[in-house]
Inverse folding.
């Protein structure tokens, strides 16, 4: 058993020795990445810190799906929110080699393979494609006071203004949440809903945008297109195209533009680079239907009214890409059977990105199937990264030597 001390503001060195409050401590990974493996898991440049099985997460017949994270602003402790077909499990990963299950918030209605969670102002917002599920609202500050884990949590509020939803999106600088992929027969045909959560226990519907979105990103724009600086911009991944919408005025959303690309099969999910110049997109079905290696599509979003296809990047396997997120100059791509792939974006303006690391939670193969990693969350201040795997469970990894 490894003992780990963690403070979000700790300094680190290349040999794994850390300075915490002027005390020197070391973090020993559960399995270092050596000779291409961390235990049984193929890897490059990333160590395994801890693992929790699906059975430990939810018992028999448990499947993994989405994940997200929360760093407590009061004490800087880190928590993982691990989605399963049965609910959301909350895991304290402050000590990343001794991850501790605190408890689970069960699904509101029935089990479902699809569940999504995002966090805003220490509140988790959870949706599912379970019939009649709506949106669960959960105050994450309750995790501070768990004394006898694991416990069964209850929602602080259940929003029933919609039934099922495929995903939920949050712009952390605004007090709104945006469920997407709701009923196509509804008012907004499955497009993003605008829900004011200034008071999390009294969400207020303020409209939506008519155009089905499978997933989206919403940002307060601070990029090179000065015309739209400071506006709230939604980028929808809408099955056959990417749509850019100004949603600053919730009563009057304005479509700025849309763009598709060659061999579009299912425009799934994308993320801005931190300078807002480029948008990195994954198509969930092109590998399967076109026989491609993992294809990542990069758009030039310098002009939001005139987006351009910039270039395509192809991976080393034929695995299907799923969710992807940008932190700094690294794109963390959940890649189903090929695990999480880390892509260097530092030369993106020259139409070049390259793989600089990976951690494969599905060692059986890299086939073009919907098994393995669903999502990855790379935003903990500590550098710890969490992975949700459909077939295996929950993983905590970290860059080797960091």
């Amino acid at each position: 058993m490894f003992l780990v001390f963690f403070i979000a503001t700790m300094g680190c060195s290349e040999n794994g020795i850390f300075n915490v409050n002027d005390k020197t401590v070391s973090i020993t990974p559960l399995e270092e990445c050596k000779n291409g493996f961390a235990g049984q898991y193929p890897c490059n440049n990333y160590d395994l810190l801890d693992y929790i099985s699906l059975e430990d997460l939810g018992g028999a017949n448990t499947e993994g799906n989405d994940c997200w994270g929360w760093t407590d602003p009061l004490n800087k402790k880190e928590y993982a929110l691990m989605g399963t077909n049965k609910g959301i499990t909350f895991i304290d990963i402050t000590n990343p080699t001794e991850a501790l299950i605190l408890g689970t918030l069960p699904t509101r209605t029935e089990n479902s393979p699809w569940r999504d969670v995002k966090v805003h102002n220490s509140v988790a917002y959870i949706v599912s494609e379970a019939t009649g599920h709506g949106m669960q609202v959960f105050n994450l500050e309750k995790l501070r006071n768990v004394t006898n884990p694991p416990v069964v949590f209850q929602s602080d509020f259940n929003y029933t203004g919609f039934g099922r939803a495929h995903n939920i999106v949050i712009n952390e600088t605004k007090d709104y949440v945006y469920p997407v992929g709701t009923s196509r027969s509804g008012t907004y045909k499955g497009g993003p809903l605008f829900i004011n959560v200034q008071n999390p226990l009294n969400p207020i519907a303020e409209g939506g945008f008519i155009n089905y979105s499978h997933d989206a990103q919403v940002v307060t724009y601070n990029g090179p297109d000065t015309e739209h600086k400071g506006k709230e911009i939604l980028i929808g991944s809408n099955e056959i195209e990417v749509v850019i919408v100004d949603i600053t005025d919730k009563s009057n959303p304005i479509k700025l533009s849309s763009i598709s690309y060659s061999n579009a099969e299912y425009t799934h999910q994308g993320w801005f680079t931190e300078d807002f110049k480029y948008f990195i997109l994954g198509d969930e079905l092109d590998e399967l239907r076109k026989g491609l290696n993992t294809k990542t599509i990069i758009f030039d979003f310098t002009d939001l009214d005139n987006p351009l296809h910039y270039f395509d990047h192809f991976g080393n396997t034929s695995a299907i890409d799923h969710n992807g997120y940008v932190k700094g100059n690294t794109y963390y791509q959940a890649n189903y059977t090929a695990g999480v792939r880390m892509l260097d974006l530092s030369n993106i303006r020259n139409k070049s990105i390259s793989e600089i690391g990976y951690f494969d939670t599905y060692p059986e193969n890299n086939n073009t199937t919907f098994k393995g990693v669903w999502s990855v969350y790379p935003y903990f201040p500590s550098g710890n990264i969490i992975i949700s795997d459909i077939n295996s469970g929950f993983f905590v990894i970290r860059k080797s030597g960091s």
Summary: The chain has two helices and 34 strands.
